[in-house]
Amino acid sequence: MLNRPFKGLPPYRHEQLPGERYIRLVKLDVVSPNGDIHCSITAFPLDKCPAFLALSYTWGSAVEGDPGTEETRQLLCSGTRLNGTPNLIDALTVFQKLHHRSFFWIDAICINQLDDAERSAQVSMMDIIYSQAATVLVWLGMPDPLLKSYLWMLNDLQDLVTTYNKRYGESALSRQDIKSAHFLRGLGVPDDVDFLKICKEYAQFCTNRRWFKRAWVIQEVALATNIKVFCGENALDWQKMESLSRLMITSTWSARLNELGVHNAGREVQSMAMARPFCQLERARKGGGLIFMRERFQKFFGKITQEEEWFGTLLYILAGARPMKCFDQRDIVFSSIGVANYILPQAMAPPLHADYGKSKAKVYLDLATMAISRGPRLYLLSMVEDRVNRKTEDLPSWAPDYAVAMTTNRLLDRGMGVYDATNARDSQRHGWKVDGSTLVVHGCILDTITFVGPPLDDYLAVLKFLLHMNEAYIPTHQTREEALWRTMVGDISGPVRSRIHPAESFLGIGFREWIVLKLVEVIFRDRNTETTSANELGFLYEFVPSDGTNTTAQLRDHIQR
Fold it and tell me: In terms of domains, do 512 and 545 share one?
């Protein structure tokens, strides 16, 4: 839809940039009495730019399901009309008031989106552009009623938590029931505040705002020197946004709210916050970005080269980007490359660049080939998702499909060094190679699988299967029962940040109690219908402990009868 005053004006045409290291900047001049925005566009050498602001926003609507996403509006640019989405025009209307006559870098305007060569070259410089910007302005869109709850969580709740932690210690929060009126009063939540309702609205606000799910924002935020966040004219504190996300996860409130039907609380800026420390350390000291991950990789792989560290870090950043969304699914990779290139060692030439001349499958395969050949051992293979979830055609099974999110944990995150049957620290890079699109891996036969058991969620079938095994599991000299429960938990216990391997033995007691509960379900499910078979109860009897307690004694008597 054309703005009425712009009818008859010719459309804006991007002139060719004077050189490879040039960028365009938009200068907001005036807003006319009827609200039209006037601007001009000028090309500058990247290393001689005036101070500018970089915009981080969503191309379409700011809110999921918002009608009119594809509606086009215009700016007046040096006697021509320049297209923009309503969300972009809303942002510029607000920022023109706050930053009158400032220069802006806005990807949709400053890059000729119809020229793949220019687009590839400009995207490859976005790490420099966003790190060089005086400020990155984050635009969440215009406000709605849910914003009030998000602001309460951002400001009021965190102030209450700070006071509470000083009094009781930071670990106390994770032990509290967030539904408890007694706890909420102790926290200082006013009686007239419906805390669970506010939590729900906060989570809904973040879910609705498409900026939180956009892949490019990881790079834009991670590389920023200064960040200012706006929802309409409301300024939000980025540090508080990070700390709120961290609070919801470390206090376990996110998991508890999930049980109450409030999903994804605390996940809104997790991917951005994960990547930002690399860049902050790199800015403080050249090479600091790789040091952030060095200890983590060396614990698993032993001593590795800087090149291997860099590829490992790129894959780590990509793992955080995979749940994010983008119009072009190649951008999941290109946006992550931008962050990784910022921490590139000085002696290492950039191995990967954005190239919109390649298909999505080709981009994914080229990355996989390079990462498996030059990255840390076979780390890439722990990034491959379940085959039933893959969407990208013509992609070999060993190459991760970055168009879909992972539904399983990477082995590197399950416990460094735990899953290391091959002693990867001592292995040399001669056991695998890529031949075309085929990964060739040399190995040896250790044993033969003779039987595959049932899915672990079919507990009756699993227990029946277990009774057909030898009572002692020969490889580890454990009982068959212990071998089963250790397999079910990956032989790991403890919180994510302090994994314990082998798993603590008290989990075995919990496993026995779980069996008893399942037995109770079987008995009382069928007590009136008498459909429980003697065989079913008979094999369950084998797992009921003869510990002398009334409960287990009654269960054993019931089975025998």
Answer: yes
Spatial contact of 253 and 180, defined as CB atoms under 8 Å apart: no
Alpha-helical (H) ranges within 423-505 are 459-467, 480-488
Whether 64 and 190 map to the same domain: the answer is no
**Is the bond leading into 502 cis (omega within 30 degrees of zero)?**
yes
Residues 427 and 299 grouped into a single domain: yes
3-class SS of residue 473: strand
* Residue 79: domain span: 4-139
Query: How does pLDDT run across 57-90, given as a tens digit for each residue?
Result: 998 889 987 765 556 778 888 889 888 888 999 9
User: Which residue has tokens 């084998």?
Assistant: 542
Q: Specify the range with the lowest mean pLDDT, choosing from 12-26, 227-241, 316-330, 416-430.
A: 416-430
One domain for residues 63 and 130: yes
406: in domain:
yes
Count up the domains in the chain and report the number: 4
Instruction: Provide the H-helix boundaries in 60-113.
Output: 86-98, 107-110
419 alpha-carbon distance from chain centroid: 23
What is d(CA 316, CA 293) in angstroms, rounded to the nearest whole number? 9
Cα→Cα distances 181→154, 177, 191, 196, Å: 21, 9, 9, 11
Q: How far is CA 244 from the centre of its chain?
A: 16
The amino acid present at 113, given as its one-letter code, is Q
CA distance 422 to 444: 11
**Within this chain, do residues 174 and 86 fall inside the same structural domain, yes or no?**
no
Q: Pick the closest to residue 4 from 35, 28, 39, 41 (CA basis).
A: 35
User: Of all helices (H) and strands (E), which one includes residue 37?
Assistant: strand 37-45
* Claim to verify: residue 393 and residue 499 sit in the same structural domain: no
CB 109 within 8 A of CB 41: yes
Question: Residue 454: its pLDDT value, please?
Answer: 74
438 strand-pairing partners: 435
pLDDT of 1: 40
Q: Are residues 481 and 378 in the same domain?
A: no
Strands 103-105 and 22-31: antiparallel
Residues 52 and 121 in one domain: yes
**How many Å apart are CA 399 and CA 360, to the nearest integer?**
12
In this structure, is the dihedral angle defined by the CA atoms of residues 176, 179, 180 and 185, taken in order, positive or negative? positive
> Do residues 427 and 512 touch, judged by C-beta distance below 8 A?
no
